[in-house]
Specification:
The protein is an alpha+beta fold. The protein has a domain at about 25-125 and about 185-235: Rossmann fold (3-Layer(aba) Sandwich). Helices cover about 25% and strands about 45% of the residues. The chain is built from 4 helices and 9 strands; from the N terminus they run βββαβααβββββα. It has helices at about 55-70, 80-90, 100-110, 215-235, and strands spanning about 5-10, 30, 40-45, 75, 115-125, 125-150, 155-185, 185-195, 200-210. Strands 2-9-8-5-3-4 form a 6-stranded mixed β-sheet. A 3-stranded antiparallel β-sheet has the order 1-6-7, with no helix packed on it. The radius of gyration is 33 Å and the shape is rod-shaped.
C-alpha cells in the first residue's frame, strides 16, 4: 500500500488558529475625542491583571506593552520605579484603584496618565490529537465473465456466465489514523489609558493574537493595539 491524499479532522481544538498567520484582525479600539487635546506625554504602565492561574502573566504583558508605547514616543516611567512607588503606597499590582489613589500615585511618579490592563488569555503552544482520514491504494482483483456452454448427458446444452480473474487493478480504502498536531500560543489583552486628573478613560482597546510562543503572541497583540490606536487617531485628524 502507498499513501495518497490526506484529509484532516481535529478531535480537540480546531486548527483555525493558524488562519491568523498573516491575516490577523485589527484591534478593537475606542478613542475618547478628548484624548486628542489632552496633551498626554508621560505615562506609567501598571502591572496588568494576571490571566487566572498564570501568575506573572500580567507583569510580562505590561512590560511588553510599555516597550511599544516607548516606540510611539510616549515617555514611559521605568517599571521598577512604578513597582517601588506602589509598594511604598501599599498598592497591589493588578488591583483596581480609586481615583484618589490613582492621583496620589501619578503625583509621586509625575505622570499625566496611567495605562492599566488585563490579560484575557495566556495559552502556551502545545499539541492536540488529530484524526487523519487517510485514503490508501490497494491492489484489487479484476474479474471478467465469459459465456460457457455445457452438454448434458441427455444431449441437451446449458449456457451460463462464469467469472474469472483476468488481472489486478487499483482500489481505494479510507482508514482513520490518530496523530498529534502542533498548536500555537495565544494571548489576549484588554488595555486602557486613564487620565489621572479626572479618572476619565482616554482610550481602551482589546486584541488577541497567536504566535509560535507566548512572548511572540504577546508582542503581536501589543503591536496590534498600538497600531490600531494610531490608525484611530489618524482617522479623526486627517
Amino acid at each position: 500500500m502507498r499513501s495518497a491524499t490526506v484529509r484532516r479532522f481535529p478531535v480537540l481544538l480546531a486548527a483555525s488558529a493558524l488562519l491568523v498567520a498573516g491575516c490577523a484582525a485589527p484591534a478593537v479600539v475606542f478613542l475618547n475625542p478628548r484624548y486628542l487635546s489632552s496633551g498626554i506625554q508621560r505615562v506609567a504602565v501598571l502591572d496588568f491583571g494576571d490571566f487566572p492561574g498564570m501568575a506573572g502573566s500580567g507583569k510580562m504583558a505590561s512590560q511588553v506593552f510599555g516597550n511599544y508605547l516607548v516606540a510611539e514616543s510616549y515617555s514611559v516611567v521605568d517599571p521598577a520605579q512604578v513597582s517601588l512607588a506602589m509598594q511604598q503606597m501599599g498598592l497591589r499590582p493588578g488591583a483596581g484603584m480609586d481615583p484618589a489613589a490613582l492621583r496620589a500615585l501619578a503625583s509621586r511618579l509625575g505622570v499625566d496618565a496611567v495605562v492599566q490592563g488585563q490579560v484575557t488569555d495566556f495559552t502556551d503552544a502545545g499539541t492536540q490529537s488529530v484524526v487523519e482520514d487517510v485514503t490508501l491504494e490497494q491492489d484489487t482483483p479484476v474479474y471478467n465473465s465469459v459465456a460457457v456452454t455445457r452438454q448434458l448427458p441427455n444431449g441437451a446444452t446449458v449456457s451460463s456466465q462464469e467469472n474469472y480473474q483476468s488481472g489486478m487493478g487499483v482500489g481505494y480504502v479510507q482508514q482513520p489514523v490518530q496523530t498529534t498536531q502542533a498548536t500555537p500560543a495565544h494571548v489576549g489583552l484588554s488595555v486602557r489609558m486613564v487620565d489621572v486628573h479626572n479618572g476619565e478613560v482616554l482610550w481602551s482597546a482589546t486584541d488577541s493574537e497567536y504566535g509560535s510562543h507566548l512572548n511572540d503572541a504577546m508582542q503581536s497583540a501589543s503591536s496590534q493595539i498600538v497600531q490600531g490606536l494610531q490608525d484611530r487617531i489618524r482617522s479623526l485628524t486627517d
